[in-house]
Amino acid sequence: MDAFTHLQNTSLAKVLADRDYQLRSSIRAELLQSADQKYADLAGQVHDLGDESVADLLTDIDNARIERHVQELRGIVAARQRLAAGNINRCVDCGDGIGFERLLTHPVATRCIECQERHEKKYAHEAPPRM
For residue 23, what are the domain limits? Predict the structure, then answer.
């Protein structure tokens, strides 16, 4: 596993900073929008079970989207720590290099492609955590 050059580390830091900004902006916008669209507004004045179901679904979708963004932000914090420690290129499973190109496209990656594929196959049938 080769260490990245200063230029590569700088490029990864910029990718992480840009994604961090995008996620925070998106979360802020979604929270502001959800504050404008109260549950009662979504459900309407007539309390129809269908309308309430749609309102519940829209609220759940918004919450799930925000939760995904927050999880990715946590991944960015961890990636920045790995970058600062000089081990962002180390796979958590096998210790081999993850690769600069992979990290440019998916900067929060913690596994090389081979280990990620094994991980996904192993855990493909588990239900995702619920809020």
Answer: 6-123
